[in-house]
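Record 1 of the preview.
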Amino acid sequence: MGSINKDMPLEMLISFDKLLQRYDTMAKSDDAFLSSRAKYVLEAQAPFPELRDGFSDIKLLEKHKDVIRIILQDSFAEVLSENEIKAASLPYFDIVFNKSKRFQKILENAGKDFKPFIRNQDEGIDYIMASTVILKFHYGFNLDFSRPYFYDIPDANGVMHHYRILYNADFMDILPTDLAKEITQTDVDKLLENPEDLELWKEMIPPNSFISKGFVISNMFDVTAEHTISEIKSNLISSDKRGSETFISDLQETFRSFFKVKELKIGFVTYNSKDDQLERVYGNGIESFLLKEKDNELCNNALCIGSYDKIVNEKGYFAVPDVDKYFKLSEGIAPYKGLHEQGIKSAIFAPIVNEGELLGVLELVSTKKNQLNGVNATKLDDVMPYIVAAVVRSKIEEENLIDAIIQNECTSVHKSVHWRFEEEAKQFIIDGLEGRQPSFKEIVFKDVYPLYGQIDIKGSSQARNTAIQRDLMIQLSNIKEVLNAALKIEKLPVYEELIYRIDNFIEDIKETLFSNSEQTIFDFVYADVIPIFNHLKKQSKELAKMVEEYENTINPETHSYYDHRKQYDDSVMLINKKLASVIDKHQEEAQEMFPHFYERYKTDGIEHNMYIGSSIANDRDFDPLYLKNLRLWQLQVMCEMENKYYNLKPELDVQLDVASLILVYSTSLSIRFRMDEKQFDVDGTYNARYEIIKKRIDKSFIKGTNERLTQKGKLSIVYSQKKDELEYLRYISFLKSKGYFTNNIEIVELEGLQGVSGLKAIRAEILYRKNKEDKKTFTYEDLMEELKA
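->
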């Protein structure tokens, strides 16, 4: 066996001197029994001084084993040898001797060539841990170096057992050699900052710089149950369990130790409460013994009445200790038929339940009768909380992954159609797990009825251009003022030329702002004005101050004067925010009536699309009543949005007006999610007519006139069929009684749009209230007069 020394800070010497010193004292005791006992031990050791002096040759352990047994007899009581798992040992060298009878038997069952090794005790960790012992017991630095140590030892059946080791180091001394160095607190601080730098530790505490003289008593305890519970917990906590190649095999091995059943296998199924069926869990190595090769099966087909009642209704463990017996008694019904065909002889099915909801079933099976039964099923009580937590977490991870796939493939989608995207995302995941090329297929909803509405800010383009004009003229005037001051100090022609160009710019934009005017002036300022201003800052304090005052008026984000445009942008942003909040809030109520697709987007105003039909509501029965209900709801909400705006108008920096429009389309159509554009669009050439009308309708004119359809103070309802006209006239009549409209209702024909003709419109004058509580109503003109007052 040779020397036990290796590259360590400690040079190990096996010695019993420290223990024998106790016997030296006991030999002088007045207690005759103790004295006699001590003298017997000392006499047995006396011929072998190396047992006191110390030795590193492991062969001497075998040579002196009988004497060593006498020396250690009091420490290893013979009457406890059949029960205690105990041995003398050397830390960090995996040397054990003088083993108790029970420990010896455990090692024999593991196999004749088996040698116990401390888990996770590689050389680097070994060296550093031994160094921390030296730092504490020799140098006096109070470090917490304790950590649990384990032996992993299989039993005769090959089931792994885990033993926690507790060391008694009462009979160990640590002695410095000539290689030992002085260690300061600064050195310790450096070591603690670099806990994995093995070379640094070797530099501070060199190899063989200390002698470890003595031995350690190892007391071991079988902690397999506690350890396997911890292992199960650790395995289940890890993320991406289904994608891991070793997750199931590792978990299965741990369960084998937990149940002490070498033949044990595990499986999982999820429970779909909506369809009352068991479904396969897709992932590396994940099996189901209830489903066999099937992807899913109704519970009534996969389980018998008894097992269904126990698992699904009572949510309790269902144990089958003898599958063959129940296969015969039941005349081959499920689940016994499938288990019998797979060679399974005993099984436990444990429901995975969270807050009363059945999420799935853990399947434990064995090829031996009675190995799994109702008694050892209770062991699951200790691990089921971790399994439940893992399943809940996995479910959340899957939902997050589904959302991430939807987000990546489709951007965000409305909750009414999210279920359909979830279905496709789940298939996307399954395809990936099963090695197929995953692709997110296009999603189509057929036979849905569209509703479209908009509240447009009237004259927004002109208001924006006016704001830009004013800002540009103010900026140019401020630049001119600085250049005039510079011209007085330095009569340079370049200043005059710049002033001339500025005057031309002001003259050009005073009447009309062209599409390229803003960019042209921006380029002029950037290329010609800023370099001059940087020069002027150096010429005099007065000019530097004027330039700085100019620069303080320039917005750092737009790099231009931004006052009137800011007022316009802030006004439009506030309008959009307030109007969007009205329809979004009411949408929550509308979804309760019947689920439908809804999208709202902001331009210069608010537009919204809605689609309603059975296919969007997950095949819920659709009745035209729901479409009529949504149309009436839309009319009311549009009027409320108008009221919201005109109550907001006095607070705005820029006084603007809005006009509302609704498009009525009675024919059902299909909508398809366009993967390239990440949005829904109508599907098919015929249905494209709807999109054409929607995009062009707000620019339409009354037939034979130059009058635009959309007017402030009026809600325009565009349609093509007489039945739609009659339907909306009924709604308007009803809403007049509720104070939404006046009696000023007109029906007009529209000029034909490109590719579309035959459109008509109802224009209904809206009644306004100054606030919700105010019962007094106003027409648009009355309201404007009232707001001015």
